[in-house]
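agent> fetching stored inputs for the adenosine-5'-triphosphate docking request
agent> found them:
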Amino acid sequence: MSETPVVPRGQFSISLDDNDNVSAITSSINKLSTEDKESTHPAAAVTAVKPGTSTDLTEKDSKPEPEREVEVRLADLQADPNSPLYSAKTFEELGLHANLLKGVYDMGFTKPSKIQERALPLLLANPPRNMIGQSQSGTGKTAAFVLTMLSRVDYDLNQPQALCLAPSRELARQIMDVIQQMGKYTPMKAVFAIKDSVGKGETIDAHIVVGTPGTVSDLLRKRSLSLRSMKLFVLDEADNMLDQQGLGDQSLRVKNSIPKDCQVVLFSATFPEKVRTFANRFAPQANEIRLKATELTVDGIKQFYMDCKSVEHKVEVLAELYSLMTIGQSIIFVKTRHTAERIAARMTKDGHSVVYLHGKLESEQRDKVMDDFRDGKIKVLITTNVIARGIDIMQVNLVINYDIPTDGNDRPDPETYLHRIGRTGRFGRTGASVNFTHDEESYEKMKAIQDTLGCDIIKVPTDDWEDARKILKKALR
Ligand SMILES: Nc1ncnc2c1ncn2[C@@H]1O[C@H](COP(=O)(O)OP(=O)(O)OP(=O)(O)O)[C@@H](O)[C@H]1O
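agent> prediction call returned; pasting tokens
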């Protein structure tokens, strides 16, 4: 439906740090170097966003930042070539249909971010080419692939033509919302692939399908979903979706059912080396947009740690933190369901409005928890890695790593760390993350993550609360 720009055939590999305009990049020959420029990040924004209300009655620590200040800071970032939110172009210049532009502007977007400016012309070019796209958390990857889905489908054909898989129910639901909002001026029909989304013997006739690998595989098995007319297959959080210890097999099975000429698009904030090879096989000859290892963290997120004396002391420190500080909305990440429930009980006893969410809750419960948290009815969400990725709630200004993230082999997990802390500091907002360590092992794990990412994690005392409050208050304002 849209007039897509014609980009010369060939495969491009560009760095988000490269500030030349896209047309210059796309007209040059195949792989450009991704490592040819030193990155310079803008100084972190000094004022913090605090849009929500507080968990207690005092307003001593953080007040909602006036929307105007947020707008001014965002405008500054979007005009700074070193920011991932920068773009030299307007949405009009990206070849989008007028109906999509209307949807985008209705959402309050004024200018594209760097990933949107770089990725969209490549994604929309004809003939379609695969894409492996990387950009920091909260920089607008969703809009890049949603606008591509909405541009690629033929609305006169009532068959599924674009499929997006995400690792969690919560993220898939969120992507559905973005599709509905961006596509509201198009005749688009989208369906959320959940267990009972289609009746027995019926088949899906929506243009766009969103789901998790599990639910989509189920629909395929039941022949409720045909992938025959698929033009675009998107994996959000692709490194996670391709991880062979996790969702990789299921994603591959779905991929094997799509037509050979279907455009495959992989997006994530992280692409660790161990999945790169598989990603390149999954999306052959893809245009690539990559970040350097030093570019992964978001400047607006200040990182801290609190060194607790023992596991028991962690609960005390957490309780103290929430009783002394006024915090907008926050997410506390823990390793196990059991810990989530235990901490929730303790904080509830202390009078805080908290909820927990993990994979063993019923779907309806999970939806209600997310809706309540999104609406600001609940201020504190305690959860496992189930929502570590992709969840976008602007008002979250604090993330706590109650347990340091580790992988299946109990090794420090820098990718999960980045995704977890990326639940705050979204699209130019500021936020803070606090890691809890409680022994040498947990400290070493955090240190390993810090070394891998080359970031600063600042110590906050647990024995001088006045000092602790001062340090954190600065980051939360
Ligand atoms: N061009 C834009 N102008 C203003 N806001 C935008 C723009 N693009 C995206 N946003 C907003 O920025 C927020 C973050 O976007 P999004 O969730 O797509 O980030 P992401 O890059 O997918 O992050 P993650 O890696 O955590 O999944 C969303 O609230 C989105 O509506």
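agent> quick read of the result: The domain at 301-475 is CATH 3.40.50.300 (Rossmann fold).
agent> awaiting further instructions
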